[in-house]
TrEMBL record:
<dbReference type="InterPro" id="IPR043144">
    <property type="entry name" value="Mal/L-sulf/L-lact_DH-like_ah"/>
</dbReference>
<dbReference type="GO" id="GO:0009040">
    <property type="term" value="F:ureidoglycolate dehydrogenase activity"/>
</dbReference>
<dbReference type="Pfam" id="PF02615">
    <property type="entry name" value="Ldh_2"/>
</dbReference>
<dbReference type="InterPro" id="IPR003767">
    <property type="entry name" value="Malate/L-lactate_DH-like"/>
</dbReference>
<dbReference type="InterPro" id="IPR036111">
    <property type="entry name" value="Mal/L-sulfo/L-lacto_DH-like_sf"/>
</dbReference>
<dbReference type="InterPro" id="IPR043143">
    <property type="entry name" value="Mal/L-sulf/L-lact_DH-like_NADP"/>
</dbReference>
<protein>
    <submittedName>
        <fullName>Ureidoglycolate dehydrogenase</fullName>
        <ecNumber>1.1.1.154</ecNumber>
    </submittedName>
</protein>
<dbReference type="InterPro" id="IPR017590">
    <property type="entry name" value="Ureidoglycolate_dehydrogenase"/>
</dbReference>
<comment type="similarity">
    <text>Belongs to the LDH2/MDH2 oxidoreductase family.</text>
</comment>
<keyword id="KW-0560">Oxidoreductase</keyword>
Length: 356
């Protein structure tokens, strides 16, 4: 039985500074390191620790080993009024995907709708980050991204698709937007990493071991399970097609692995499908409707064992407020690493998709 690791509380500013410094130590230019630190701090503030500081050692190793283009030659190609690609030249994913938002906003403002493929990028992190930014501009959007083949298709004993997440965001009249953001697996791979880093076990419904049996040991995971059996399996296929295959990027089991070939770009696909709601009704009416929906959801009688009904994204917003006030709880070994002179631990690269 693994012992739970000690945690420490850090302020968001301190965490941001530590992440940015470590990524720059690994060789990432300041602008990309700043934006990646913004993103990872947002994830830890939201209590989505699977996509926060826990990832820095991996990113640092890939950056240091040449698997991220440090000065990417980004190529934006608008192929129609509402269609474009934003080729990231395998630059740091969070940075490239964030840069593309500017083009998405511009196209939606001009034409009412945009589908922009962010192509040839590395890992783009927590998708709520992007759809929330679009919603702050009054835009309703979906974002999806490809991830490495680590999920057994329904009825299969070998992995094919990735944890392929889908996020949706919409503006509110007041306060932060609503955003729904999920992996199409029962849990994101990062949640298993988070369990490993904390020494926790996992429920037996999340993943299977190398023999296809359900496992509670995060270190024994060899394949993840799709949400709701064939339905989650279908959703992850849709993500793979819309975020990757449609741009002629590798798909399914051909998608690159996070922990292999750390000296090569990952060539992942990430997509924004965004629309201006004021092309259908006024923004004021749309956001009034959202407020009505939120109020009606909040007024629903909670079921036994629940204190209230939350709208999607609300828990992350509450976590952010609390963590900003009280500090973010992070495993101590992660902070020790971030504060140390060690750039990375040379621990990825030869271990397959389910690396320690
Ligand atoms: P999750 O299970 O923590 O949350 C899924 C959704 O359910 C969220 O929108 C959350 O607000 C909502 N939710 C959770 N509890 C709720 C409640 N009690 N009431 C109402 N709504 C509730 O998310 P998951 O699936 O673990 O994904 C975590 C993150 O991993 C996401 O940000 C996703 O984008 C990211 N991810 C990124 C990948 C990549 O390759 N870039 C791959 C897979 C996931």
């Amino acid at each position: 039985m693994t012992q739970k690791n000690e945690t420490v509380k850090v302020t968001a500013n301190r965490l941001h500074e530590l992440i940015k410094n470590k990524l720059m130590q690994a060789g990432l230019p300041e602008e990309a390191a700043e934006e990646t630190a913004n993103h990872l701090t947002y994830a830890d503030l939201s209590d989505i620790h699977s996509h926060g500081a826990v990832r820095v050692a991996y990113y640092a190793e890939r950056i240091a080993k040449g698997g991220v283009t440090l000065e990417p030659n980004i190529n934006f190609t608008q192929t129609g009024p509402g269609t474009a690609t934003f080729d990231g030249d395998n630059g740091q994913g969070h940075y490239v995907a964030n840069l593309a938002l500017e083009k998405v906003i511009q196209m939606v403002k001009e034409n009412g709708i945009a589908m922009v493929g962010v192509t040839h990028v590395s890992h783009t992190g927590m998708l709520a980050y992007y759809v929330e930014k679009l919603a702050e501009e009054g835009i309703v959007s979906l974002s999806m991204t490809q991830s490495d083949p680590m999920v057994v298709p329904f009825g299969g004993a070998e992995n094919y698709f990735g944890t392929n997440p889908i996020a949706f965001g919409a503006p509110r009249k007041k306060g932060r937007p609503i955003f729904f953001d999920m992996a199409t697996t029962v849990q994101a791979w990062g949640k298993i990493l988070d369990a490993r880093s904390k020494g926790d076990s996992i429920p037996d419904t999340w993943a299977v071991d190398s023999e296809g049996n359900p496992t509670t040991d995060p270190h024994q995971v060899a394949g993840l399970l799709p949400i709701a059996g064939p339905k989650g399996y279908g959703l992850m296929m849709i993500v793979d097609i819309l975020a990757g295959m449609i741009f002629d990027l590798p798909f399914g089991k051909h998608v690159s692995s996070m922990y292999k070939d750390l000296d090569k770009g990952r060539d992942l696909g990430h997509v924004y499908i965004a629309v201006d709601p004021s092309r259908f009704t006024s923004l004021d009416q749309f956001t009034s409707n959202i407020e009505q929906m939120v109020d009606e959801l909040h007024a629903i009688q909670p079921a036994k064992g629940f204190d209230q009904v939350y709208y999607p994204g609300e828990l992350a917003i509450e976590s952010t407020e609390r963590n900003l006030a009280e500090g973010i709880e992070i495993p101590k070994h992660i902070i020790d690493y971030l504060e140390s002179d060690t750039v990375h631990f040379d621990q990825y690269g030869n271990k397959g998709a389910f690396a320690e």
